[in-house]
Design brief:
Layout lengths: L1 H16 L13 H30 L4 H5 L3 H25 L9 H24 L5 H51 L4 H23 L8 H19 L2
Helix pairs in contact: 1-6, 2-6, 2-7, 2-8, 4-5, 4-7, 5-6, 5-7, 6-7
């Protein structure tokens, strides 16, 4: 429990202090952010997707009529997570295009965006307690991957909302992993629900990383992304074999 709380504090600290790493926000994209994105994606494909396969077995054994109706339930939930954040991203980008340069977002759009990421952060914090993190090694690997993922998200949100994010948004995002962790202490859901949450988060991570790496104007560093992805994949595979 203590280690998971320290991990939740680390998640919060990323949002509080990321703004001080101003050199990471430059264009062309910092190689460190591309590497962090590679680590996050590697974690999803090497660690979370195998968990989704196990989660599918859990759902296959469920007697809930909706889940029994769907053939690949857990993967559809991952797709739902990806699609939800893709739709949100399109909305935000359209809004930004309609604003004069350097103008802050409208309050309603800003809070919609931050609320979505606040829930997302809360789920990641909750999975500290109830995900597949029952060993110290898996918890540490989860903490590293998600901390780097939060760093990537932080710079993306800073780019979208400027000072409004720095003054308000980052503090809410910093609190949510701690709130999610605290919820995990008092709320225990079924294995089926944990599988569903893991699937949704996994799909969301894939979208939130790739949307920052793929746009041409980001001038991303593929070599750094590949180094992060390959290096962390080897690390994960090494721990899985022990």
């Amino acid at each position: 429990m203590l280690v998971s709380f320290i991990a939740a504090l680390a998640f919060a600290a990323v949002h509080v202090f990321a703004g001080r790493l101003r050199t990471l926000g430059r264009i062309p994209r910092s190689g460190w952010l591309s590497m962090a994105g590679g680590v996050s994606v590697a974690y999803v494909f090497v660690h979370l997707l195998p968990e989704l396969a196990e989660g599918q077995e859990v759902m296959d054994g469920s007697d809930m009529w909706l889940l029994s109706y769907l053939e690949h339930h857990v993967y559809l939930l991952a797709l739902l997570g990806l699609a939800a954040f893709y739709g949100l991203e399109r909305l935000i980008k359209k809004h930004r295009r309609d604003l004069p340069e350097h103008q802050e977002s409208h309050a309603g759009v800003f809070w919609l965006h931050i609320a979505a990421f606040a829930i997302y952060n809360g789920l990641i914090g909750y999975l500290l307690m109830h995900g597949e993190n029952n060993r110290l090694s898996t918890l540490v690997l989860y903490c590293i991957a998600m901390s780097l993922h939060f760093l990537v998200n932080d710079f993306a949100l800073q780019n979208d909302h400027k000072d409004l994010f720095r003054r308000r948004g980052r503090w809410l995002l910093a609190m949510m992993p701690l709130a999610g962790w605290a919820s995990g202490l008092v709320i225990e859901v079924s294995e089926l629900a944990v599988s569903a949450l893991t699937a949704f988060v996994g799909g969301s991570i894939i979208l939130n990383v790739l949307k920052e790496e793929l746009p041409e104007e980001r001038d991303s560093r593929f070599s750094a992304f590949l180094l992060g992805a390959v290096g962390y994949s080897l690390l994960l595979l090494g721990f899985q074999s022990t």
